[in-house]
Design brief:
The N and C termini lie far apart (about 185 Å). The strands form two sheets. Strands 1, 2, 3, 4 and 5 form a five-stranded antiparallel beta sheet that branches. The chain has a four-stranded mixed beta sheet with strand order 8-6-7-9, with no helix packed on it. Among the domains are: about 45-120; about 175-290, Nuclear Transport Factor 2, Chain: A (Roll); about 310-355, no CATH class. Residues about 170-175 have low confidence and may be disordered. The protein is flat, with a radius of gyration of 61 Å. The chain is an alpha+beta fold. The longest helix is centred in the N-terminal third of the chain and has 25 residues, at about 95-120. Helix 2 runs parallel beside helix 4. The chain has helices spanning about 1-10, 45-65, 70-90, 95-120, 130-135, 140-145, 150-165, 175-190, 195-200, 205-210, 215-220; strands spanning about 225-235, 245-255, 260-270, 275-280, 285-290, 310-315, 320-325, 340-345, 355.
Amino acid sequence: MSENRKRYSSAPLYGLKNSGRTQGGGFQVRMDEPRPVERVQRKRNFVFLQVCMTLILPIIFIVALILGYSEVHWGFVALSALALLCMWAFGAFIPQARKTMTLIYTALMMVSVAAALWFTTSLMQPPADPTSAYNNGDLSNLFGRDVTASQVGTYADTVNANNAQPAAKPEETPDSRSLAQERLEQFMNSWMNLDYTAMLNYCSPAWKNAQSNPEQAIFKVRGTQTPTNFDVIYVSGNDADDSRTITMEALIDRGDGNEPTRYRYEVLMLRVNGQWYVDPASLTAATKIVNAGTPTPNYTLMPTNSPDPNMKLYYNPDGGSFYHTDENCSSTSIKYLPLKGSFLYSEIGNYDLKPCSKCNAPNR
């Protein structure tokens, strides 16, 4: 113990020999320097990227499959590639999640690329003509396999009819027949409405100029007659003519208390300066239409076969007044049945009897 105490008695002061002294004469004790404080790195939040990869992009992929447009598939591929690039560049999510997302979106992008190249159509492409398959001779896509020859033939006839060149449309020309008929109808409607001033407006200028008093002249034409209805039967002539004849039938009421009578008119229509007019002089000659009476039917009596002379007829010898074809005829009282008397049809003249209508006995 004493040896050890002697050995280590000065150990605590070891190292103070070489230490510098302070100006005050004391010893300078060395202090340890403070360690720098480490900054805790703040974790980044990738909420938008998470929403895109778990919700938005899957919806775009489903919409692309439903619509079948290649542009939508290419858009999905571009957005998916951008999302994966951002995920790996910024270290989003945990490593296991990044690997899973990469595998899933790689598979989805491969499906979209295949669909865009072979199984979809472009938005910019015009709609396909269903008849092009028929015109090109390829009907497999148009009809499928389960199709009959009659269905193909019917479709071919329809396509040929639709593809037929339309006939050249004739150049439209004024319908003179319609104009002439229309002017006559306006004249007759004015007559039916007792508008005599309007009637003069539809009369030909040559006829009005030839009359000293057109109002009085048109009164002579119409008189006390008033049409109740009229029908245009036929319009003669053609578009190049300046005059046309219209056959018309009108039911005329003469105002004498009798039933209206139907007359037929041959109305002359004149075209003056492109306008059609009625020649009132043609209305003065009218033909009365007489309905033929219903002919009396002529009935021809068909000859009937004479009864068999050997036909056996029956009667009641106890005061009966009819002869019968049935010996048990129901028209006879049951107490007289069966009938006891009988004779042949050839002997009917020997009996003063009447035929029975109940059993259709033949007449004499």
